[in-house]
Structures are given as structure tokens and as C-alpha cells.
Amino acid sequence: MATLNGHPVDRPAVNFCEIGGMKADPTDPDEFNIFNSPDWQPLLKLAEESTDIMRMRMPELKPRPENCSAEFFTTEEKAEGRSRFTTTTLRVAGRTLSQVTRQDADVNTVWTTEHLLKDVDDLKAYLQLPNEVFSFDPDIGPLLEAEEEVQDRGIVMIDMLDPLGAAASLFPMQDYTIIAMTEQKLFQELLEKLAGPILERTRKVSELFPGHLWRIGGSEYAAEPYLPPHLFREYMVRHTKPMVSVIQEHGGYARIHSHGRLKAILPMIIETGAVAIDPVEPPPQGDIELREIREQYGNDLVIFGNIEISDIENMEPSEFERVVMQSLKDGTSGPGKGFVLMPSACPFGREITTKTLTNYETMVRLATELVA
End-to-end alpha-carbon separation of the chain, Å? Predict the structure, then answer.
């Protein structure tokens, strides 16, 4: 919290992102729970005992009485071997649209193998959905539960998609980029349709759970190389700035989550009023060095990240140590609000190698040794 407020700290914060952030129950015997693997136990313990915890949670959404989504959407789940498939079917405006997701037992991720919207006609049909379909009340029970569990070992961070993230993820990436470029008026209609309920939800959660950190995802969909910078302002800033405002009205802190290239969009991210950014990936994944961001925007933004998960998993410990030392140096040198050493993601398989665990231990050790 001192880092978020730009106050002096005894050492840089260090966080493992999803490890210690997402729910992980090593006692759950479910074959789809990778965290019950013996490989994971030392890493989970390291995160819980030695890092600055940020529990990543979303409020539960409960349909309001007027919600009519069941009239349009149906969901079917089935298992095939060691995979789970979920098919969502939408019937609207005379069209039948479908989305399919897949989860494998040995991988902690969900792939969308078929997206709901595939062309302009699908988008036009989706826009015919009545607004009541999006009518939900947020229940902050999961947030309160996480806060009670973590106590003073860390904080709870509300995880939320902005309208751009919610809209773009309805399409396959190639179709999203074409439609967002060539059908700008229509795509803006979709953003407007989603923005109202998302903003209302953000306001309600901010009122009920004030003073907390939020991670707002979605902005990378309008960053280069997907879209030109002028559309970032139209598609992201226009709809995310009001979210940031209501979060801050209730003493909260908004952090923008944006992978990849940042150079062209950083000034516009600052326009939203956000106080932090992640994961600030180094080149070649990103296009700007941490020291440059610190020099140019360090007084405006708390910086989270700068460590690539691919480096943690693949780099030899001696080389990785040099990478971490450079990130700590660049992230804490000179004036600036603050820096949190953090990876861009986490391993998603059952196996955690000795090299991977050693590299995570290096992050903790070097951050702890760097006493202000």
C-alpha cells in the first residue's frame, strides 16, 4: 500500500502475479487442479510466505429479477477424455451463434476454440439483445472472504475487464481487428452496449469494497500492432476512464493491465487517471525499456512487472539473476512513485522444474536484499 501511494518503502515489493493471486487449493484432488501436483508445493509455499500477496478476485454476478439472459443463452458441458468442453449457444435476431471453450486436465487455462461472434452479421444480431440480458448485481462475498483469509499478509485486488476487453474477446482475433478497423461505428455501438453495465458494476463494487486495488484488463486489444494509436483513445480511454474515476471516488487504485507494446499508448493510459500499470514487458515482447518508462512516467505510474515468465522457465539461474538485478535497478532508480517486481504470467502446467523454482527464489532474494 505504501508503494501504491508513492510512499517510501523498506524494500521493493515482489509479487508472483497469479501465484498467490489466483485460487490454488493443493488439497483438491480434482484431476483438473494442477496445483495438487507435488511440483507446485514449494512454489506455492514460497509465494505465501515470502512475497507481497495480491489476491486476484472478481465479484460474483447474480442476475437481477429483470434479467432475461436465459431466454437467449443456453450452456452445455461435456467431458471427452481428460478435457472439458463448454458450449454456449445464443439465439437472437433469427441467428444461432455458438462459442466453445476447452480445458485440459494438465493445463491451467481455458482455450476458446470457437468464438461467439464471427462476422459483421453476428455482431448486428448481438446488438439486438435487450439491455436486461446484462442486468446483474455484484456480490462482493468472494472479495470479503479473500480479505479475511489473507489478513495482513497482503491485499485483495479486484480483477475486471473493461468494455474493450469484453467486446474484443467475443471475436476471433483476426476478425476482431478487421471489424474494429473497418466497422468503427458498429464496434463503438458494441462498446457502448457493454460499457453501461460494466461501469454500473464498477461503481457498485467500489462503493461496497472501497479503498482497494483494481486490475483493469483489455487495453492491449487496441495497442499496436493490432490497431493504430488513434483508436486506442476511442476504444479504450473513452470507456475505461469513467471506470477509473468511480474507483478513485471511493479511495481505490486503478491499475491498467496491458501486455506488449506500450510506447505509443502510455500517454493515453495516463489520461485515464490510472495510478499503476502492468506487466511492462521488456523488448522484444514490449517496445520500451523499464528505465525509459521510469524516467518519463515514473511520477505518474506505479510500475508492476518487467520479468518475463519465459525467462523464469527457460533462463539459466546465473543469467536470470542479472536480469532481475537490472529490473530492480531500473525500476527503483531516480524519482518515481514505486516499483513492484513481478512476472508477466505464471507456469500453467503440472511440472515446475528446479530451474523455475530457483529463478522464483532469486526474485525474492534480490528484492529482499535491496534495502532502501
Answer: 16
Query: What is the per-residue pLDDT across 178-207, written as a single tens digit (0 to 9) for each?
Result: 999 999 999 999 999 999 999 999 999 999
pTM (2 d.p.): 0.96
**How many structural domains comprise the chain?**
2
Taken in order 50, 54, 56, 58, is the CA torsion positive or negative? positive
> Do 204 and 338 reside in the same domain of the chain?
yes
Sign of CA dihedral 261, 270, 187, 172: positive
What residue spans of 250-289 are helical by DSSP H? 266-271
Cα(235)–Cα(350) distance, rounded to whole angstroms? 38
What residues have CB less than 8 Å from 40, skipping those under 6 apart? 24, 26, 34, 350, 352
Distances (CA, A) of 27 to 37, 45, 207, 284: 10, 13, 35, 39
Tell me: do 219 and 277 sit in the same domain.
yes
Pair (300, 258) in one structural domain: yes
Same domain for 141 and 179, yes or no, is yes
- 331: domain CATH number is 3.20.20.210
Q: Within a domain: residue 347? A: yes
pLDDT of 44 higher than 90 = yes
